[in-house]
Specification:
The complex is a heterodimer. Chain A is α+β, with helices and mostly antiparallel strands. Chain A has 12 helices and 19 strands. Chain B is an alpha+beta fold. The longest helix of chain B has 10 residues. The chains are: A alpha+beta, B alpha+beta.
């Protein structure tokens, strides 16, 4: 009765931390994917550590002191949860949560042709971004497949900070270097030079305000400013991955602990709690945000994920993937990324089949019990036809997810599942 | 991690308390910690015949789903009625209010012998230490 092909299935006998993190392990590229990306190496870059265990962030000891459950995520020892991940999730929706994101990859692109190099390497129009602002964008293969999704902060005319997923940082660094060849732009991996702390949730500005010299009212969404937090110099950005207002703080590693402790202490009265990767995943899922390795990957284009808007076909000059993506933009989509709400309490998980009238019509990419909706939710790729038909009033009862051999009814809903109150 | 002396355990991380011909069953503190927040338990219904070492239900948490194995042979007599509304009891009180189901034991001769294959608290503690927890 056990189906060994179900990725999310674990036996209690194997409930070590690695197996409970099954869904996260899907976030990294396989060696084959990395090979497709032209680098031949996968996974995290252990450069400078010289040890075989996962890398520690400047805050790992703090997490250990807090009694966190730690897990190897993309080669980094990261907090999965501190206590109850549902309580952490709710704190972010109603008050605030504090996240260690120091595993994220930071790549600095600088030089007179930094903007031009990124315009060629990425699908976005980076030279159109004003200094101090940021963009969500992607790096694609020549065939249009997504190799990573990125946030690019333009720090100055000739300086851009590219933030990549931890599992892809080495690949992205190699690709940027390769694609910038012949241009006056230098790419440096600065991951070890940055601790990244996020404070997310409706109370974030109230907590952070008294601890920074920045006037938070002036810090726009998707903007970044040099500032101080708890007296330490940081790059302060209004970005996040939770669907809430919040800030991301790029700090020097030696300042990470004082920033974390100062925010924790000041935030306690506001309901701030430390939050781990488990809560981060359910928060981003409710907010309909894609996760690389689940909703995005080398066999999918940005258009498949409903994110064709990030592909700037109107920018001048060639860029990697342009021809394939231009063709894809014109073609009728074969599949669509949709939201599902389960009508059962059994959770649709990554890799499960979606059924229409009992026949397979797609695959779940991410699924979890939603603390906010009080029901299991999932994102899934389904055929374009089903994505259309399932919205019709007579569709009730026809859509289901094969949850380990049993068809559990689900209904199709527009993404995101959750939008924060205006 | 709590491993009460008076209980017996399976290698699959269930605990069992045997009193006369009745066995009460749940999952261990180690298991609930590894799973994280439990959101749904599908336990075998009253009247179901269960077999030691065979899957008889499922435990869903935020990040994973796990099979629930029966530690003993017998027939399910009762399912914890609180768990459906409050599956978090499995996390907050795994050996108490978070019990999952009770089984009427199918033992030959009731001479105080334990059903085979169960672990003592010390054996179970050693097993989980091997897991690196």
């Amino acid at each position: 009765m056990t189906d060994p092909t179900d990725l999310a299935r674990t036996d209690l006998a194997r409930t070590d931390l690695a197996s409970t993190a099954t869904d996260f392990s899907a976030a990294g590229p396989s060696p084959a994917e990395a090979a497709a990306a032209g680098t031949g190496t996968a996974g995290p870059s252990p450069a400078g550590t010289g040890t075989t265990g996962p890398r520690r962030t400047p805050l790992t000891s703090v997490h250990e002191d807090l009694g966190a459950t730690l897990t190897d995520f993309a080669g980094w020892l990261m907090p999965l949860r501190y206590g109850s991940e549902i309580a952490e999730h709710r704190a972010v929706r109603t008050a605030a949560g504090l996240f260690d994101l120091s595993h994220m990859g930071e790549l600095m692109v600088s030089g007179p042709q930094a903007g031009a190099a990124l315009d060629y390497a990425l699908v976005g129009n980076m030279t159109a971004v004003s200094p101090g602002r940021a963009r969500y964008t992607m790096i694609c293969a020549p065939d249009g497949g997504v190799l990573d999704d990125l946030i690019v902060y333009r720090l100055a005319d000739t300086e851009f900070l590219v933030v990549a997923n931890a599992a892809n940082a080495a690949v992205v660094g190699s690709l940027l270097t390769e694609r910038a060849a012949g241009m006056d732009a230098a790419i440096t991996d600065r991951t070890s030079d940055y601790a990244l702390i996020a404070i997310q949730g409706p109370r974030s500005a109230d907590i952070l305000g008294p601890l920074t010299d920045a006037s938070l009212g002036d810090v726009k969404y998707y903007a970044s400013y040099p500032a101080t937090v708890a007296g330490a110099p940081v790059l302060l950005a209004r970005t996040g991955y939770t669907g809430e207002d919040g800030f991301e703080i790029f700090a020097r590693p030696q300042d990470a602990e004082v920033i974390w402790r100062t925010l924790s202490k000041a935030g306690a009265d506001h309901g701030l709690v430390p939050a781990g990767l488990a809560a981060r995943d359910t928060l981003r899922l409710e907010a309909g945000m894609p996760l690389y390795g689940s909703e995005l990957g080398p066999d999918l284009t940005p258009f498949d994920a409903g994110l064709g808007r990030v592909v700037k076909l109107d920018k001048s000059g060639d860029f990697v993937g342009r021809a394939a993506l231009a063709a894809r933009a014109q073609a009728a989509p074969e599949r669509a990324l949709v939201g599902l709400v389960s009508q059962s309490r059994r959770v649709p998980r990554h890799g499960y089949r979606v059924l229409w009238d009992g026949a397979a019509c797609g695959t779940v990419t991410s699924g979890a019990p939603s603390p906010t909706l009080g029901a299991p939710i999932a994102m899934a790729y389904v055929t374009a036809a089903v994505a259309q038909e399932a919205t019709r009033p007579d569709a009730a009862g026809r859509l289901a997810v094969d949850v380990r051999g049993r068809a559990e009814p689900a209904r199709l809903v527009p993404l995101p599942f959750y939008r924060r109150p205006a | 991690m709590s491993v009460p002396e008076e209980l017996h355990y399976t290698p699959e991380h269930e605990w069992v308390a045997i009193s006369g011909s009745t066995a009460s069953i749940g999952i261990t503190d180690h298991a609930q910690r590894a799973l994280g927040d439990v959101v749904f338990v599908s336990a075998p219904a009253a009247g179901t015949k269960v077999t030691a070492g065979e899957p008889c239900g499922e435990v869903e948490s935020t990040k994973s789903v796990s099979d629930l194995y029966s530690p003993v042979d017998g027939e399910v007599t009762e399912v914890n009625p609180e768990i459906d509304d409050d599956p978090g009891l499995v996390n907050s009180d795994p050996y108490g209010a978070g019990w999952l189901f009770k089984v009427s034991l199918a033992l030959e001769g009731d001479d105080g012998e334990l059903p085979p294959g169960l672990l003592s608290a010390a054996e179970y503690t050693a097993l989980t230490a091997e897991d690196g927890s």
